[in-house]
Every structure is written in structure tokens, then in C-alpha cells.
Amino acid sequence: MDQAEYRSNPNNLYHISCGGVVYRQNNQKTEIALLYKNKRTAWNLPKGTLHHNETLERCCLREIKEETGFETIVEQYLGALTDQWFDETQGYDIDKTVHYFLCKYVPSGSEIMDEEHDRVEWLDVTKVRELLTEGPKNEHLIIDRAALHF
Question: What are phi and psi of 130, to 5 degrees?
Fold first, then answer.
């Protein structure tokens, strides 16, 4: 296993990530931040690999900041999704668990996202759920859990 993070490798096929449902209230309406990647033509929630000695919450906040540029506050644990797939680039099966948190957006004025995604959009809950239902990661199930808190 890599010394810095819980990333899968041929000797340890288990991968741990954390991410969040970032929301804001806009004119009495709840909006969720969703990321888009052109090369995969896919929408997803911000998330990334857990580092050694890092809490799940800290990983969530770090990954949201890196991928969106947003400052957030963790409000609620939303559970985890575990999936297995064949990673064609690595040549082996991976078991991956992603822990998700409900996170409130905090305007900071300094919102520079990394280059991993092409854009971030604020969308209403129904549209986010629709877009994530089309994807392979079942993240729409996390949106259903988050929606209980709005």
C-alpha cells in the first residue's frame, strides 16, 4: 500500500475515498454543486482518496476544496457506497468505498478549482439526482439521503 494514501494497488485491492454533497440556499431554493469531466462525459460529486492519518471528515473537506475551490462545513455523515470494478488502466479488480458527508457551502471569495474537472455547476436537487442516476457510481442514492436534510 502507498505510504501516503489508501489507494488500491496489486498487493492491496481496497481503495478508500471521501467526498461530499455541497449545498447552498439560494432564494429559498437548495442547490448542490456538481462536477463535470469532459473526458469521461460524466457528472459526479467531489471526492478523493483518503490519506494515512487523515480523518474521513478532513479528507472530505480537503477534496472539496481541491476539486471545487469551495470552503465548506461538514454537517452530517451520509453513509458510504462500496463498489467493485475492473480497472483497465491498472489491470486488476478494485474494491472502493466512498464515505460521503453533507457539507454547507461557505462563500470565501477565493474559489479556484483544480484541473481534474472541467467545470462545477450549482443545480437543483432534482436535476442533480437525474444526472447522477445516469452515471455508474450510484451517487444518486447519496443525493436521496442528503435531500432528507433540506
Answer: -60, -50
